[in-house]
Amino acid sequence: MFRRIILGICLLLVAIFSAVRANAQHVGHSDGYQIVHVYPHDPDAFTQGPVYVDGHLYESAGRNGKSSVRMVDLSTGQVLRHYDLAAEYFGEGLTNWGSDLVQLTWKTRLGFVYDRFSLAEKRTFHYEGEGWGLTHDDKQLILSDGTPILRFLDPHSFSETKRISVTDEKGHPLSNINELEYIHGELYANVWQTDQIGRISPRTGKILGRIDLSGLMDKSELADPDAVLNGIAYDAKEDRIFVTGKLWPKLFEIKVVHQRH
Fold it and tell me: What is the pTM of this model?
């Protein structure tokens, strides 16, 4: 009896050690970051989707009664131009397409198209489900809705052309996919309420890697519990990556540091 107990304890310890080791290996496989520059950011902006295009930073801010799309001066954080949404709309993901900006809303299944230079509203469109993050490749828009499913939309008709299911390193569905950005042929995605960005294959939906942004923002500077990491913008001309969060007073230009596996 005593020998069976000892054997059971040993097997339990081996299982615990293996689980800890596996978790450590998973964390170790995440890429890190270097801060290149820190810019001021509006701490009242509930950031849903920043976009950097043609030398300008554009941003979608959320919350009912406070939602807007805005043009922001990167160096100062000053809002140069803005368009406020009606109070019933909760602004979500934002991307550019040609001379337009395209913005999602959370639960109203309605999107807005704006002139990128004046921020004048041009049209609206409908889609199924919730709207979370939005980006595009060279052919179509790509929408996240908080589930493991990413939907591809025609940028003119906004009809769905295909969808993929995102899976993690173990092949399990990955939920809470939020803000999206298309960078170097991959989808960079904030995983809501974590300090991680997932790198997703837009062809297969498989996670190609993760970027761990733990410690990027000093949490003592954040008073609101909803002030989580959310917001990725990419300057394709200068190959710069910007990240920020909801209600963050800072926006960071970072360089991804790839870990050797």
Answer: 0.86
